[in-house]
Amino acid sequence: MRRVLCFFLFALCSVLLCACASAPYRTSLQLNPEAGRLSLSPQDLDDAYNTAIATGTDLGYRVVSSSAQQRMVTLNRLRTTDLVSETLEVSVESKGPSADVNIVYQSPRPLEDVTVKEFTDRFLAKLKARASSAGTGVSAPAHPQAESGGVQGEAGPASSAQPREMYLTLLKNSNIRSEPSIKSKIVATLRRGEKVTKIGESNGWFNVRLPSGETGWVSKRLARVTE
Question: What is the pTM of this model?
Answer without folding.
Answer: 0.60
